[in-house]
Amino acid sequence: MRWKQFFTPVKSFDTDQARKYMEGKSSGEFTILDVRQPKEYEAGHIPGAKLIPLPELTDRLDEIDPNKPTMVY
After folding, report:
1. What pLDDT score does 12 carry?
2. What is the rounded distance in angstroms from the CA atom of residue 35 to the CA atom of residue 38?
3. What is the DSSP letter of 49?
4. Cα 25 from chain centre
5. 31, 68 in Cβ contact below 8 A?
């Protein structure tokens, strides 16, 4: 039933808001999730971002800590 989390309201951040949110926090306080394809990730990604390509997301939800805020790009 983890799919239900996708129907809860979420906040959208622009780049500046995301940077401001991450300032002063340790990387363990939140998750940065990259849902692009591996080649895109290899070409460049946010340091510390976890790669789970969008087509794999539903099968890999257990890899995301539900108790931490998650920023997805």
Report:
1. 87
2. 9
3. P
4. 15
5. yes
